[in-house]
Every structure is written in structure tokens, then in C-alpha cells.
Amino acid sequence: MHMDYNFVVFGYDSGFYRTVLSDIMGLNSVIYRDLWGTKNKIAAMIYKLYFTPRLPNRHFPFKNLLYHAACDFHFADNRPICFLSFGRNFHDRTYPFLSYLKQHYPNAKFALYYEDLVETHRHDIGWVKQNFDLVLSYDYNDAKRYDILYYPTPYSAIPVESVT
Length: 164
Hints:
Blueprint lengths: L5 E6 L3 H6 L1 H4 L4 E5 L6 H11 L11 H8 L10 E6 L8 H10 L4 E6 L10 H7 L2 E4 L2 H7 L2 E2 L14
Parallel strand pairs: 1-2, 1-3, 3-4, 4-5, 5-6
């Protein structure tokens, strides 16, 4: 299968997402990251603390170093990158990371997929539509209401025999 882009998917550490996206996880053109995370466990812990919306917003003076640690994307070719995030892991704390990615990957495309209703998220849909190249929702009515694209929840084809 040939794709015009390499993909970085900012997902979750949940087994559900790893299962429904399992057919793309092994592709050379896809890097899957948990919670905007990084392979470095210390950086991942700091990231989790910094980006949790439950704690009060605070100034983080070395966030660019943390962003750099999270951006160790290595692909076999130099196709442009498409960054895909899910609605639940995108909020006001991740806005600066989006700006960082746009600055360091000027040819990249950015997509956001709402796997829950738009109104359950803590961000402005107008801002999202201005800052993402593609915005999708699993919910047909939300897609119509917010003038975004409808795309049903994707599921990987997993043979029943292999599930035990």
C-alpha cells in the first residue's frame, strides 16, 4: 500500500485503541504515540503531569526541550507528515505543542478526530477548525452541526480465530 504521507498518531495507551488501529500500527509509514508521549519514561511522566487538564495551568519553562524529546520521528523516507490526534487528548495545554509541531514541520498536515461528542471536549471548535487541516467526527449529527467531516469509528480487521 502506497501513501502520500507518513503518519504520527497521537493516541492513548488503552488496549482498545491499539486493537482498533492494529492494522496500521505495523506500517513503516505510521508512528503511534500514547498521549502525546515519548519513548523516554522520565519525559513521558513530566509530559503527563504537564498536560493533564485536572491540574491548574502553570508555566513550564523547558517545554521546548520536552517537545523536542517527543518529536523523535524517524521514517524511512522524506514524505510529508500528517499528525493525527484524537479529541480527548487535545486541550488548551496541548495548543503550544501544536504550534511547536507546525513550526518544526511546516509541510505537515494536522487532523483531529472526535471519537466523542464535540461538546464533551474542553476546547473551542472554531479554533480547532482554524488550526487543523482536517477535522472529523464519529457522530453524524455533530459533523452536520459543526460543519466538519463525518467519519465512522474505524476498526481494524481482526480474524476471530486470533482473538483469545
